[in-house]
Amino acid sequence: xxxxxxxxxxxxxxxxxxxxxxxxxxxxIDNSSKKKINICNYNHxxxxxxxxxxxxxxxxxxxxSSNIKKFKRESLIGNKNIILLAKKFNFKVIFLSTTSVxxxxxxxxxxxxxxxxxLYLQSDIDYKILRIGNVYDSNFKKKGxxxxxxxxxxxxxxxxxxxxxxxxxxxxxxxxxxxxxxxxIDKWKKLKSF
Length: 194
What we know:
The protein is α/β, with parallel strands linked by helices and 194 residues long. The protein is built from six helices and seven strands. Helix content is 40%, strand content 15%.
């Protein structure tokens, strides 16, 4: 069955790759830069859902930036709005969280992801929370530890600086991640969250 899917954060690494992968089987609702959806503006978001039939919303927004206040606001208010509108318009939500919530260190990013998860846990909408680790691709385009390791072993850099050695890191290939999201959509009712 072909579903209509809205990907919030479709211009980011995860969203872009999910859009490409899922568009093979499903209808992806355009969320380009010209039609960018502001999840913090309830009225704007509500008007979008009045005009567009959405079966699934994948929320891949919430990447930390140097503006911590903006990150917190967009994550918490945005997820509250998504939950309210999911109840009103009856669409399913996949919220992308992080495996870092399992670690002992709770920085701002992890704390906000946990608070966002709590919003879903306390709601009565149809949702899944995916706690994912570091996502990489075969070309190591994305910045991060794996890209640095490849560059180090290829002699392109002389050292690797790891800023927080206490963080537990795991990795998943973008194709495996996208396949799992597709499987979740296809088998929605049989799967539990996390």
